[in-house]
Specification:
Length: 164
């Protein structure tokens, strides 16, 4: 009789084995669920970053449009290192000093900086000669995310290429 009792134990699962297998599966599912939640949180927050980047690029394009229309009227009179805002009034872009929000969420700022060149005509960070027909433009878009302000900025140089 003892032989058949030990023979039966070899082929069945004990309660301890079932609990261990269930625990391993549960840990795996919880890790998978946590990873999925992190993925969703990242995916939803990236939408704002993508929109902010597009708005910053649009800001640089608007400045290029204003430069092409008239450097002397639209770009040259603006103060250096001053925050400006872009407004589309239906007919075209306008630069203003009044705060402008996009979708009541995003604030886009444009700032112009002077450009200096060395004797060979290259742009230098310090020293050199002021180039009155070139400006560095920084387009920044800020928005509130998770009780903190997030900012996306891009920059480029524009020049008075049409001498207008």
């Amino acid at each position: 009789m003892q032989i058949s009792a030990t023979k039966n134990l070899k082929y069945g699962l004990t309660l301890v084995e079932v609990i261990m297998a269930t625990s391993i599966i549960l840990v795996f599912l919880l890790a998978l669920f946590g990873t999925h939640n992190l993925y969703l949180k990242t995916a939803f927050s990236n939408g704002e970053v993508v929109k902010a980047t597009a708005l910053a690029e649009e800001g640089l394009e608007a400045v290029r449009f204003l430069r092409d229309s008239s450097w002397n009227t639209n770009i040259e009179p603006l103060f250096i290192n001053t925050d400006y805002y872009l407004v589309f009034d239906g007919d075209g872009w306008q630069i203003t000093t009044a705060h402008a929000f996009i979708d009541n969420r995003f604030e886009r700022k444009i700032m112009f900086s002077s450009v200096y060149r060395d004797v060979s005509g290259g742009i230098v960070a310090s020293g050199g000669t002021l180039d009155p027909d070139t400006r560095m433009v920084v387009s920044s878009v800020s928005w509130l995310q998770a009780n903190a302000t997030t900012t996306k900025s891009i920059s480029t140089y524009i020049a008075n290429i049409f001498d207008n």
